């Protein structure tokens, strides 16, 4: 946790990042289809606009749209105003587009730098956590096992793609027919369906929506059950493929064991989500905050992984940040519904949320600060960095 003191990347790591070459895999069919549109639209960006600023604007559009949805229902179980679903769909499209053209803007303005990959992939990790929470919201899953499963299916592919890049040096845009761009369009469709057909569309019976369906495929099933099957198929199928690819890429028994431990460590994030007790009314009604607290851990570990793969530093399998949740879970285990225990629970709950937000922000701030200083560039501005004279 050296980043809390303002230093995470070693001097050798800074040098490695400066010499790092991004090796992308092949575009997916969907990427190839959209590429002419991306090439066309990047020409509308002003040349003074830094690539990282392009990415950040897209992330702000997506994050702002979803936060509005979360404000209407923090429990993530109730329908919200239909216009919020449209805003999220637009936010996903805006982020997808700006995220796809930030590299083109960098080449167009001659401002490519290793910081670009770090910032781009860091924003990607945040965007997928927002998308995962959006899935839980429009399906009304709340803090539940199904909610955690939906989050796993949405978030884990991106983590494994970075883990494979850490071990192979190549970042794959897709695996087979599965890719992030197609997944984003699928989420746009699900949100637009809520906007056009009503916020409760996923709580309706299949037999009412599709009366021609055979009884064994419709009786007792809601539309959200079918959406869950799709998400689980894509997420679990993708992760199994990634695990096999990761273990095959690891050379030697020791390397394979290390890769396996990295996978187990990541699964601990979803274990944290499961430990939040949804039987406690306060926790259940504040599911959004519980999820964000744990999501900060996902973003933190993923950003650490991205920094380590670029700097060729060792990515640890033990992260002491997990211990931040220990006081809350201890207090939760002692909860007995008395006013005193209720107050203690709320304090620990919010404190965990705030601390996780702060240390995640601190890591991002430290990493960007180190790189902008070492590379003598700005994060959101094109041109060399000029140090102030003392």
From TrEMBL:
PROSITE patterns hit by this protein: CDP_ALCOHOL_P_TRANSF (PS00379)
Gene3D superfamilies linked to this entry: 1.20.120.1760
Compartments where found: Membrane
InterPro entries for this protein: CDP-OH_P_trans, CDP-OH_PTrfase_TM_dom, CDP_ALCOHOL_P_TRANSF_CS, CHOPT
Primary residence: membrane
Segments traversing the membrane: 53-71, 83-101, 135-152, 223-246, 258-276, 288-310, 317-335, 347-364
An annotated GO BP: phospholipid biosynthetic process
Highest rank taxon of the organism: Eukaryota
GO MF, one annotated term: phosphotransferase activity, for other substituted phosphate groups
Keywords per UniProt: Membrane, Transferase, Transmembrane, Transmembrane helix
Keyword Chaperone: no
One term under GO cellular component: membrane
Family matches, as PANTHER family: BB IN A BOXCAR, ISOFORM C (PTHR10414:SF37), ETHANOLAMINEPHOSPHOTRANSFERASE (PTHR10414)
UniProt family annotation: Belongs to the CDP-alcohol phosphatidyltransferase class-I family.
Record's protein name: Ethanolaminephosphotransferase
Organism from which the protein derives: Euplotes crassus
């Amino acid at each position: 946790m050296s980043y809390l003191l303002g230093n995470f990347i070693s001097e050798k790591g800074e040098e490695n990042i400066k010499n790092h070459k991004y090796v992308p895999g092949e575009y997916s069919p969907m990427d190839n289809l959209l590429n002419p549109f991306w090439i066309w639209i990047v020409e509308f960006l002003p040349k003074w606009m830094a690539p990282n600023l392009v990415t950040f604007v897209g992330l702000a559009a997506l994050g702002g749209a979803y936060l509005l949805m979360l404000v209407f229902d923090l429990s993530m179980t109730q329908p919200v105003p239909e216009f919020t679903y449209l805003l999220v769909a637009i936010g996903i499209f805006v982020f997808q587009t700006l995220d796809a053209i930030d590299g083109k803007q960098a080449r167009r303005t001659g401002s490519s730098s290793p910081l670009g990959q770090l910032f781009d992939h860091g924003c990607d990790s945040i965007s997928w956590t927002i998308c995962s929470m959006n899935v839980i919201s429009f399906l009304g899953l709340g803090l539940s096992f199904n909610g955690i499963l939906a989050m796993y299916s949405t978030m884990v592919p991106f983590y494994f793609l970075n883990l494979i890049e850490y071990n192979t040096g190549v970042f794959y845009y897709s695996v087979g027919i599965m890719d992030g761009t197609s997944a984003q369009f699928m989420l746009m469709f699900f949100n637009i369906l809520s906007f056009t057909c009503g916020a409760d569309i996923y709580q309706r019976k299949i037999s009412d929506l599709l009366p021609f369906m055979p009884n064994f495929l419709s009786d007792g099933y809601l539309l959200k059950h079918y959406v869950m099957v799709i998400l689980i198929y894509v997420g679990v199928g993708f992760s199994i493929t990634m695990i096999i690819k990761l273990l095959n890429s690891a050379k030697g028994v020791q390397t394979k064991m290390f890769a396996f431990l990295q996978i187990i460590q990541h699964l601990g994030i979803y274990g944290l989500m499961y430990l939040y007790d949804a039987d406690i009314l306060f926790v259940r009604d504040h599911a959004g905050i519980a999820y964000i607290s744990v999501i900060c851990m996902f973003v933190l570990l993923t950003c650490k992984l991205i920094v380590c793969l670029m700097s060729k530093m060792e990515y640890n399998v033990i992260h002491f940040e997990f211990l931040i949740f220990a006081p809350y879970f201890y207090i939760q285990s002692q909860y007995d519904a008395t006013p005193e225990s209720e107050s203690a629970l709320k304090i620990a709950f919010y404190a965990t949320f705030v601390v996780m937000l702060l240390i995640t922000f601190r890591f991002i701030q430290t990493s960007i600060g180190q790189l902008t200083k070492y590379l003598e560039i700005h994060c959101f501005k094109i041109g060399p960095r000029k140090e102030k004279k003392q």
